[in-house]
Amino acid sequence: MDVYETPQSEEEMDVRKGPWTEEEDFTLKAYVNIHGEGRWNSVAHFSGLKRTGKSCRLRWLNYLRPEVRRGNISLQEQLLILQLHSRWGNRWSKIAQQLPGRTDNEIKNYWRTRVQKQAKQLKCDVNSKQFRDALRYVWIPRLIERICASSESPSGQPSTTAYTGCISNITTNQITYENTSGSVQVAPSLLPESSGTSSDSQDAQVSSVSELTDSYPNSMQTGSGSCSGNLAGTWNIDGGESMESVWNEENIWFLRQQLYDDDLN
DNA sequence: AACTTAATCAACCGCTTGTTA
DNA sequence: CTAACAAGCGGTTGATTAAGT
C-alpha cells in the first residue's frame, strides 16, 4: 500500500482517513449549508476538516445530503436498477439519477451484494449472456409480478394466488416463461443486445431451471418435466418492504413496454 | 456463550473526464 | 493547444453487524 509513502507536504501528513465522526459530519454539514456544494478541496481546506476534498465530497453525497434516502431498497427500486443496468451497464451514477435519494454507491453495493451473489450461486458470470437473459426473463418479470401482487393486496403483502407465473424451462437457446396469460418463449441468443458482448464464461453450463426456491410460495416454483438439468443455486429475490403508492399499474406497464422496446432495438 | 462465516456498506483508491488559465 | 488541477466515476477494500454452528 502507498499509505506509507513520503508525504508531499505537512498538510498531507495529518490527513484523516476512515469513518467520519459526528463532529466532522457536523462541521461539513455546517460548511456546506453556508457555502454550498462544490469546490471540495476548498471545503476541506477552509472548514478545518483534516480530510481530502474527495473524502468530503463522498461523505456529503453518500451520507449527509438531506435528500439521501437510506434503508431497504424497494421492489420498485430493484426493478428499476435491474432494468437500467441491463440498458446502461455499470453506469452507477447514471442509474442513481433515476432513483431519487439513492446514491451510486448504494446501488453499486446492491448490485454487488445481491445480484452478483445470484450469479455466483448460479455458477455463471454476471456478464454472461445466460445470466443477463435470466435477469431479464426471470428476475425482472417476477419482480413485476410481485409488485403487481403487492399493489393488488390491500395489506401490501404479496398474495399467494398472484404467483402463477413460472419459468418452465431455460436452455441455452430458449427461456420459457409461463403465467396466467400464457407462455412466452424467447431465444435470448438471437437478441441483439445479448449477442454483442460475450464474456469468457458465456459457455457456463446453465441449461435449465428446475427450481426457483426463494421467498415465493411453492406454487411459484417452476414446472417440471421439460428440464434437463439443474442450476446449481437458487433465485432469491429478496426485497425491500416499503410499497410506494406512486408505483401503480401504469408504471408497471410502462416498464414492461420498455422491456419490449429493448428487445426490438 | 463463544466462535466462525457471511452479508452489508462506508470509505478509499486510481483512473477518466471536464474545466480553466 | 496544452498542462495542471478539480471533480466525478467505478472498482475494491476493510470494518462492522448479523446469522449460523
Automatic annotation (TrEMBL):
<keyword id="KW-0238">DNA-binding</keyword>
<dbReference type="InterPro" id="IPR001005">
    <property type="entry name" value="SANT/Myb"/>
</dbReference>
<keyword id="KW-0539">Nucleus</keyword>
<keyword id="KW-0805">Transcription regulation</keyword>
<feature type="compositionally biased region" description="Low complexity">
    <location>
        <begin position="198"/>
        <end position="210"/>
    </location>
</feature>
<feature type="compositionally biased region" description="Polar residues">
    <location>
        <begin position="211"/>
        <end position="227"/>
    </location>
</feature>
<feature type="domain" description="HTH myb-type">
    <location>
        <begin position="69"/>
        <end position="119"/>
    </location>
</feature>
<feature type="domain" description="Myb-like">
    <location>
        <begin position="65"/>
        <end position="115"/>
    </location>
</feature>
<dbReference type="InterPro" id="IPR017930">
    <property type="entry name" value="Myb_dom"/>
</dbReference>
<feature type="domain" description="HTH myb-type">
    <location>
        <begin position="12"/>
        <end position="68"/>
    </location>
</feature>
<feature type="domain" description="Myb-like">
    <location>
        <begin position="12"/>
        <end position="64"/>
    </location>
</feature>
<keyword id="KW-0677">Repeat</keyword>
<protein>
    <submittedName>
        <fullName>Uncharacterized protein</fullName>
    </submittedName>
</protein>
<keyword id="KW-0804">Transcription</keyword>
<dbReference type="InterPro" id="IPR044676">
    <property type="entry name" value="EOBI/EOBII-like_plant"/>
</dbReference>
<dbReference type="InterPro" id="IPR009057">
    <property type="entry name" value="Homeodomain-like_sf"/>
</dbReference>
<feature type="region of interest" description="Disordered">
    <location>
        <begin position="187"/>
        <end position="227"/>
    </location>
</feature>
<feature type="compositionally biased region" description="Polar residues">
    <location>
        <begin position="187"/>
        <end position="197"/>
    </location>
</feature>
<dbReference type="Pfam" id="PF00249">
    <property type="entry name" value="Myb_DNA-binding"/>
</dbReference>
